[in-house]
Amino acid sequence: MKGNKQLKPILRWMGGKSKLATEIIEKFPKHTCYVEPFCGGAAVFLKKPRSKAEVINDFNGDLINLYRCIQVHPDELSKQAIGMLHSRWLFDKLKSQNPGELTDIQRAARFYAINRMAFGGRMTAPSFGYGRSTAPGLSAARFKQDIELLTARLDKVYIENLPWADCIGRYDSADTLAYCDPPYWQTAGYGMKFGIDEYVQMAQLAKSMKGKIIISVNNHEKMQQVFDGLNIEMLTIKYSCGNIGKGGVRKESEELLIKNF
């Protein structure tokens, strides 16, 4: 694996792995082809060293359209920065638009802007986000900078919009590493249905595929049962609830890291 400048996600994404990325990457075995079937905000992909072949994939067509436009049409996309101001008026205007009537470039800019302005980056029924102690999430300058940085990182990367299992199957080999970060079990807000049968299929695939796989899921008894027989370790993540200096508290959450090696 070749080194690269570590980048941060340009989007706010539910279940993102920014805080656990380093710990997860340390578990990566040697590989030639790296695959992320649930890339989302791509925190792990952006932080890891480059691999000879890399694939990012997601079920969300708007997300993948954004990444593809950044990769292939960065200059045209940058022109959409005009008028990008973190405002409730723009947020409501963009939400009211029909994405089907927009070009791919316009749709990509719209998706980015809504995400950066939405409370918590939540894209299912998004609400306008604001703060009394934080800077606005959207600005024209930041949009242009994000495009410039990510364009270079996405060079020579395969960008797919496939069902997760199809993506793994297409790129599976003895030299493949797949990192799966599916929706948390029994957690709403992902904008997709992901039933227990999907986790069962993932466990079966982990046991039968040629390559190696690492899976992140929330620590739940049901998840431990589904992935029984694989190598399971527990990671602890600390997060803050509210401003620590003003009475907020630090909490811990547990996550399972599952491997087939």
What is the compact description of this entry?
It contains 10 helices and 7 strands. The protein has 261 residues and is of the alpha/beta class. The chain has 2 domains: 151 residues, Rossmann fold (3-Layer(aba) Sandwich), CATH 3.40.50; 93 residues, Orthogonal Bundle (Adenine-specific Methyltransferase, domain 2).
Could you characterize the architecture of this molecule?
The protein has 261 residues and is an alpha/beta fold. It has two domains: 1-59 and 161-187 and 197-261, Rossmann fold (3-Layer(aba) Sandwich); 62-154, Adenine-specific Methyltransferase, Domain 2 (Adenine-specific Methyltransferase, domain 2), CATH 1.10.1020.10. The chain has helices at residues 21-25, 43-47, 61-72, 74-78, 88-96, 104-117, 140-153, 164-171, 196-208, 221-226, and strands spanning 33-36, 53-57, 158-160, 176-180, 212-218, 231-241, 249-259. A seven-stranded mixed β-sheet has the order 3-2-1-4-5-7-6, sandwiched between helices. Strand 4 (176-180), helix 9 (196-208) and strand 5 (212-218) form a beta-alpha-beta unit. The longest helix has 14 residues, at 104-117. It is globular, with a radius of gyration of 19 Å. The two termini are 19 Å apart. The relative contact order is 0.16.
